[in-house]
Amino acid sequence: GDLPASGNLNDAYIVDSNGDLYVWTGAAWSNVGQIVGSPNDEGYLKFGHKSKVYSVHRVIYLLTHKEDPECVDHINGNVADNRPENLRAAVIQTNAYNQKLSKINTSGCKGVHHLKDGNGYQASIKYNRKRKFLGTFKSLEDAKEFIELAREMVHGQFANHGVPV
């Protein structure tokens, strides 16, 4: 990963059960006991340490699990919820499975869109970096039921049906 060894961070930061990261030892830019992290445009908390910028959730995962995976996924989809039990190791592909409903989605169901002729819905899912078309359905309810079942089968624990947090 892109983080320093956890031993270096253990000397400087501690994590509480709420998912807050605190300064443990004094540093030129902050006081002991201060919560670190400012949200970026996507809501992820970031902070500076020794002239580099780090993600709070990645540091919390490193400190609590003693590993630095390719990605750290927020299980419930809420990027502000950095409790250790809400974080899990992921790779880019499985992290993408846990995405929320797109802002440009018009059907209200992740992986389902209206057919251009207006006579039904088409469902598709991404798996192994490829889009797989699962078929067309007369009703949104049928398409939703099918896509959710398929998503649970292929995405497993990373399945996210696009429910807002």
Would you write up a description of this structure?
- The protein is of the alpha+beta class and 165 residues long.
- 22% of the residues lie in helices and 26% in strands.
- The strands form 4 sheets. A 3-stranded antiparallel sheet has the order 3-4-5. A 3-stranded antiparallel sheet has the order 8-9-10, with helices on one face.
Rg: 20 Å
- Strand arrangement, major sheet: 3-4-5
What is the helix fraction of residues, given as a range?
A: 10-25%
Number of strands: 10
The helix-strand sequence is HEEEEEHEEHEEEH
Dominant shape = elongated
Mean pLDDT: 79
Extract low-pLDDT stretches: none
Number of helices: 4
Distance between the termini: 28 Å
Largest sheet: 3 strands, antiparallel
Structural class: alpha+beta
Percent strand equals 25-35%
Brief characterization of the structure:
The protein is 22% helix and 26% strand. It is built from 4 helices and 10 strands.
List keywords for this structure.
22% helix; 3-stranded antiparallel β-sheet; 10 strands
Write the layout of secondary structure elements.
Layout: H1 6-10, E1 13-15, E2 21-23, E3 38-39, E4 45-49, E5 52-55, H2 56-65, E6 71-74, E7 87-90, H3 92-97, E8 112-114, E9 121-127, E10 130-137, H4 140-155
Antiparallel strand pairs: 1-2, 3-4, 4-5, 6-7, 8-9, 9-10
